[in-house]
Amino acid sequence: MSDLSRAAERAAAHSAALALYARQWLDATAAQDVVQEALVRLLGQRVCPDEPVAWMYAAVRRAAIDAARSRDRRRKREGAMTETKPNWFQHDEGAALDADAAQRALTRLPHELREIVVLRIWAELGYADIARITGVSVGTAHARFIEAMRRLRDALDVTETGRSHDAGKRS
Amino acid sequence: MMRENEVDESELKLAEALKSLEPAASRMDPIAAAFTAGRRCGRRRERAWGAAAIVCAVLAICPRLMPGGKSPLPAHPASSWTVSAVAEPLPSSDVSALQLDRDVLDHGLAGLPAAHFAAMPVMTARDML
């Protein structure tokens, strides 16, 4: 099996997290298209990247930002703003957090904080890779993650035994 | 006292709780991706060969289309010499055809007079350009 095939296999194992990352900019369908296109580009490389998973996240980021820009231009032209936001997470009763509450809390975060949370928690990347992908220093990436976690902690009520609720909804 | 750049326990708990959420399933098709990548790679090569062929054709045709038909290759010194040799008027012979016929019958090819033409150089395709 070639290096690229192995890399594609590793990337395919991250498909859900890659799609979640792309959805920071795009809807579900466009996010899937962007992820698939990134995989095609990975397989079209002459030399296999050293870190194919980080390479995929970087490729998805670039493609998602481009696609979001074209979508915004198109929407501006057409004057239509019909946003559908399907769920980012699977609804699992056993999960420690309510999926909808978590999605709401995440969407309230500024974009630059949210993408670092996604890369750190669901992509399981190190700060060096995150910094490279997002184009900031390692220190900035770390500081943004800390800030995002503080904001999320304030927005979500995480109890040891129960599921989370929106902090704003507590009586 | 906790440092500002450290994650406290509640934030670690939150990170674990967030991690327990599974991102919505996504369809990624490595086989379709490999097929598309292969097709694109083939198309790229095809385009590269096509472009190379066009460049070669243009390089071959351009010198002939230029006014004066100048070749980009340096003129072979032998070419101009050949032309001048051909352009020279043929030396007149004072031997009559009848005499020549008789000499050939008597002495064979040795009876022919010595040629007055300069030796022709060997021509190559390069000389034709």
Task: Describe the fold and architecture.
Chain A has helices at residues 3-13, 15-22, 28-43, 52-78, 99-108, 111-122, 127-134, 138-155, and strands at residues 156-157, 165-166. Chain A is an all-alpha fold. Chain A has two domains: 1-79, no CATH class; 95-161, Orthogonal Bundle (Arc Repressor Mutant, subunit A), CATH 1.10.10. A two-stranded antiparallel ribbon of chain A has the order 1-2. The longest helix of chain A is centred in the middle third of the chain and has 27 residues, at 52-78. The model of chain A has no long low-confidence stretch (mean pLDDT 84). Chain B is an all-alpha fold and 129 residues long. Among the domains of chain B are: 29-70; 73-84 and 96-129, no CATH class. Chain B has five helices and no strands. Chain B has helices at 9-19, 30-65, 77-87, 97-107, 125-128. The longest helix of chain B has 36 residues, at 30-65. The termini of chain B are far apart. The mean pLDDT of chain B is 72. The chains are: A mainly alpha (171), B mainly alpha (129). The A-B interface holds A 5, 8-9, 11-12, 15-20, 28, 31-32, 35-36, 39-44, 86-90, 92, 94-97, 99, 102, 117, 120-122, 142-143, 145-146, 149-150, 152-153, 156, 158, 160, 164 and B 4-7, 10-11, 13-30, 32-34, 36-38, 40-41.
Secondary structure topology:
The complex is a heterodimer of chains A (171) and B (129).
Chain A: H1 3-13, H2 15-22, H3 28-43, H4 52-78, H5 99-108, H6 111-122, H7 127-134, H8 138-155, E1 156-157, E2 165-166
Antiparallel strand pairs in A: 1-2
Chain B: H1 9-19, H2 30-65, H3 77-87, H4 97-107, H5 125-128
Please provide the count of β strands of chain B.
0
Oligomer: heterodimer
pLDDT under 50 segments of chain B (min length 5)? Answer: none
Cα distance spanning the termini of chain A: 58 Å
What is the arithmetic mean of pLDDT of chain A? 84
> Can you count the helices of chain B?
5
Biggest pleated sheet of chain A:
2 strands, antiparallel
What's the alpha carbon Rg of chain A, rounded to whole Å? Answer: 17 Å
Mean pLDDT of chain B: 72
Name the structural class of chain A: mainly alpha
- The portion of residues forming beta strands of chain A comes to under 5%
Largest sheet of chain B: none
